[in-house]
Amino acid sequence: MKTINELFDFQGKVTIISGGAGAIGSEAARFFASLGANVVVADLNEEGSKKIAEDITKESGNNALGIKIDVTDEKQIEKLVQATVDKFGKVSGVLNNVGWGAYTDLWGSNTEKMVDAYKLNTLGAYNLTRLCMPYLKKEDNASVVFSGSMVGNTPSPEFIEYSTAKAGLLNMVRSMAVASGPEVRFNSIIIGTVDNGESSKEAGYTQEMIDNVVKGIVMKRRGLPEDIAYAMAFLMSDAASWITGAELTVNGGGVYKSKMPTS
Ligand SMILES: NC(=O)c1ccc[n+]([C@@H]2O[C@H](COP(=O)([O-])OP(=O)(O)OC[C@H]3O[C@@H](n4cnc5c(N)ncnc54)[C@H](O)[C@@H]3O)[C@@H](O)[C@H]2O)c1
Description:
Elements: H1 4-7, E1 14-18, H2 23-34, E2 38-43, H3 46-60, E3 64-68, H4 74-88, E4 93-96, H5 111-136, E5 142-149, H6 160-180, E6 184-191, H7 198-202, H8 207-216, H9 225-236, E7 247-250
Parallel strand pairs: 1-2, 1-4, 2-3, 4-5, 5-6, 6-7
Protein name: SDR family oxidoreductase
Family: Belongs to the short-chain dehydrogenases/reductases (SDR) family.
Pfam family, one: adh_short_C2
C-alpha cells in the first residue's frame, strides 16, 4: 500500500489546465504545482495565464507555462499541445475546465447562441482531449478531469444554452471513459456554486440571488475554488487509479428541501 505522500506525488507530471487563469483553474494550477506537477496554464486571458505561471514558478520552483488559448479554435489547441510537448516532452493529465454561460430566457435563445455554448463548454474539451490522447496513452495513470456543473444533470431552463452544453459534456466523458480504459481515465466533477468573483455576476446573478442559494446549501456557504482543486487532484492522483467514468459531486451537500414542506 502506498503512503499518502506517494499517492499525491505529482513530480515529473505535466498537467494542462484550460481556463487556468479563472477562479477554479488558477487554484488548481497552484495546488497541482504544490504537489510537484509542471503545469500549463491555458486561458483566453493571456495576461492572467502568464502571470499565474510566473507566480507558480516563483512559489513552487516547478516549471509552469502560461499560454493564450481560445478553446473554440482547433488550430490554437494544436499549438497549445505542441508547445507543451516541446517544453516538457509529454502530457500526463488534462483538466478540461473552460466553461461559462449566461442567464437565458428558455425560449429566448437561437441557433447561434446554442452552438456557441456547445463549442465553448463541450467541443473545446473534446478537441483538447483528442489532441492530447496520443501523449496521454504513453503515460502511467494518465487522467483527464472535466469541470461539469449541477446544471448539466438537473433541469435548468434559466441557463438553457450552458446547461444543455454541460449535459452533453457529461455524456461525452462517459463515452470517453468506457472506450479508453485502461490506458486513460476520464472523470467529471459536478460542481455546485463556487465563488468566482465577478464571473457569476456577469452570468446574471445578483448578490441577493447568491445569498438565497447559499441559505439552501447543506454546508451554508458557496464553494471556494480550492474545494474543487482538491477534488481535481484526487481524481488525477494515484489514489484514484481505479476510478474512471465517475461523476464526483462537489456542491456543499446540495440544496435540501423537506419532503414534508410546511409552507
Ligand atoms: N463557479 C461556479 O459556481 C461553477 C459551477 C459549476 C461549474 N463551474 C465550471 O467550472 C469551470 C471553471 O469555472 P470558474 O468558476 O473558475 O469560472 P471563471 O469564469 O472564473 O474561469 C473561466 C476561465 O475560462 C476562460 N475562458 C473563457 N472562454 C475561454 C475560451 N474560449 N478559451 C479559453 N479560455 C476561456 C476565462 O478567461 C476564465 O479565466 C467552468 O467550466 C464552469 O462552467 C463553475
